[in-house]
Write a structure and sequence with these properties.
The complex is a heterodimer. Chain A is mainly α. Chain A is globular and about 55 Å long. Chain A starts with a helix and ends with a helix. Chain A has helices spanning 3-19, 22-40, 47-77, 81-88, 93-122, 129-156, 159-176, 188-193, 198-207, 215-245. Chain B has helices spanning 42-49, 70-73, 91-99, 108-114, 130-143, 160-172, 187-193, 211-218, 239-249, 263-271, and strands at 2-13, 16-27, 31-35, 57-62, 76-78, 148-152, 179-183, 196-201, 204-209, 221-227, 230-236, 254-259. Chain B has a 6-stranded mixed sheet with strand order 5-6-7-3-8-9, sandwiched between helices. A 3-stranded antiparallel sheet of chain B has the order 2-1-4, covered by helices on one side. In chain B, strand 8 and strand 9 form a beta hairpin. In chain B, helix 3 (91-99) runs parallel beside helix 5 (130-143). The radius of gyration of chain B is 22 Å and the shape is globular. In chain B, 41% of the residues are buried. Classes of the chains: A mainly alpha, B alpha/beta. Chain A binds chain B through residues 1, 5-6, 9-10, 12-13, 16-17, 20-21, 80-82, 84-85, 87-92, 245-246, and chain B through 50-54, 70-71, 73-74, 76, 78-86, 88-89, 93-94, 96-98, 100-103, 124, 140, 150.
Chain lengths: 246, 275
């Protein structure tokens, strides 16, 4: 059977289900732009500042989508009878996973585009076409550890615990990573742990587009985080498979 | 032609033995009911047939291959468990997505209409009644036009009228080479619709044959009459013998009745429990 067609069918089903639940759509798509309006706009009066915080909030938007789409999504679905039914259909885990990634991509693009649009309308932000291109590439690369982090949450947390856990990580790590307010404004403790956080390294990677961050340090740091989260995700996945479908 | 073959399948969950060497087969054109008390291993047998679980010992063969293979599952249709749908989706969306998995699916709208869901095709699944969701679940098992349909308690929670209507539909769609394997708590469904009955007790197949032969082998007849001390109602394996002895004893009796055996009685004899 045509794997493309099946991936499309699963993506469409998943997107429809998600789009019809406001509790999912609002936090993932609108929160980053709302936070941008509240925290970033007053600060972003100059072009350099506006460019900087726009990149921060693009990272914030992408992290939200990955943690919710993968973390909360997997945790909620893996115990459901519907998931058990889908496993009786002639479809491999690969197609189902591809559909989830496609959904995350769609929501991630929407959330990030909304941030960029908000920035364009409310701040003097200005990127060159080359900067936009680098932003796209770095955003995709920087999303990888958070996708894996999301999967790990999805398999380790119960359906009920996944939402608060994802939220706590999302908000705390984003704040301490300097994504809401630039790192130099962070209070004492947050400032000292900030450089070790994956959110901060994602920010550094994106800020390097402006010459402000250090991509040569951020990329290896994000790779190490990816490895750690991949191991956690794999152990969680195996554990779930063993208990449910052995 | 054999579609599904379970051969000495054993399965344990920790210290609990769910199946201890269960063997049965489903072939073209058959409608097979799997019966047994709760916890006897019916669900585990079905899960292994559907490729959801692997047997510890023995083999499960689906269309000559493994139930875990996608190619074999393309000829298999199953029902979701009760109340398992994502609420926000609509019956037609779900049925179309399911049909997309099969090489030669049935017409989606016709299948929905066959199960009385035409008018509900664009409603939210969450707004459907339990009975309507049940019908959708069964429709999904048929929408791929598979050779083997597996229905896990398709009518649980439905009233008598809806059960009868649903079974009429299932029988209509089961002709020809298509086979149906189902579990049920309602023995009359096995009696009226199954061509064969497999009874699983304590993880092993205790009986495998037609509903009529199950009745004959394990059935009891009831003799009732009004004697000198009031009404008497007795279950016996041999009613002829009982009546002969009754007449010979010279006891006065009236209103003698001999009730035919039911599948329910046979089942109770076989399993030592109701259902």
């Amino acid at each position: 059977m045509n794997a493309w067609r099946l991936t499309l069918a699963h993506t469409r089903l998943m997107l429809r289900d998600l789009l019809r639940s406001p509790a999912y759509v609002i936090p993932t798509i609108f929160f980053p732009s709302m936070f941008f309006l509240i925290f970033a706009v007053p600060y972003a009066r100059r072009v350099d500042r506006a460019d900087f915080v726009t990149l921060s909030y693009v990272a914030f938007a992408i992290i939200g989508v990955t943690l919710f789409q993968f973390g909360v999504g997997i945790a909620a679905e893996r115990g459901r009878p519907w998931e058990r039914y889908l496993r009786t259909l002639p479809v491999g885990a690969f197609v189902r996973f591809a559909a989830r990634i496609a959904c995350a991509l769609a929501f991630g693009l929407c959330a990030a585009a909304l941030v960029a649009l908000t920035a364009r309308l409310t701040t003097p932000m200005d990127f060159s076409p080359a900067q936009w291109l680098r932003l796209g590439l770095y955003a995709a690369a920087g999303a990888i550890p958070f996708v894996l982090f999301g999967i790990a949450i999805g398999y380790w947390a119960s359906a009920r615990a996944a939402v608060p856990i994802a939220n706590v990580f999302y908000l705390l790590l984003s704040f301490a990573g300097g994504l809401w307010l630039p790192p130099q404004f962070l209070p004492g403790i947050a400032a000292s742990i900030s450089p070790y956080l994956p959110t901060r390294q994602f920010g550094e990677l994106l800020w390097s587009i402006l010459g402000a961050g250090d991509a040569a340090r951020a990329l290896p740091a994000l790779a190490i985080y990816s490895l750690v989260f991949a191991v956690l995700a794999a152990i969680g996945y195996r554990r779930d498979e063993r208990t449910r479908y052995a | 032609m054999t579609y599904l073959q379970l051969d000495a399948v054993a399965k344990r969950y920790g210290s609990v033995t769910a199946l201890r060497g269960a063997t049965f087969a489903v072939g073209a054109g058959e409608i097979v009911a799997v019966l047994g008390p709760n916890g006897a291993g019916k669900t585990t047998a079905l899960e292994i047939a559907l490729g959801l679980r692997a047997a510890d010992a023995g083999t499960a063969t689906l269309f000559g291959g493994s139930p875990k293979d996608l190619a074999t599952r393309r000829r298999l249709g199953a029902t979701p468990q009760q109340s398992g749908f994502p609420d926000a989706l609509r019956p037609r969306e779900i049925a179309r997505a399911v049909a997309a998995h099969y090489p030669h699916p049935a017409d989606v709208d016709e299948t929905l209409a066959a199960f009385g869901l035409a008018a509900l095709a664009h409603r939210r699944v969450g707004d459907l009644s339990g009975g309507e969701q049940r019908r959708l679940a069964v429709a999904l098992a048929f929408v791929g036009a598979p050779d083997l349909v597996v229905l896990d308690e398709p009518t649980t929670g439905l009233d008598v009228e809806s059960r009868r209507a649903l079974w009429e539909r299932i029988r209509e769609l089961s002709g020809g080479t298509r086979a149906v394997l189902f579990t049920t708590h309602y023995l009359e469904e096995a009696e009226s619709s199954a061509t064969r009955v497999v009874v699983i007790v304590d993880g092993a197949v205790r009986f495998d044959g037609t509903p009529a032969s199950l009745r004959e082998r394990f059935g009891v007849r009831r003799v009732s009459y009004v004697g000198p001390d009031g009404p008497i109602d007795i279950a016996t394996g041999d009613t002829d013998d009982y009546v002969r002895a009754l007449v010979r004893s010279g006891v006065a009796f009236r209103d003698l009745q001999i009730a035919a055996t039911s599948l329910e009685d046979a089942f109770v004899t076989l399993t030592g429990s109701r259902r």
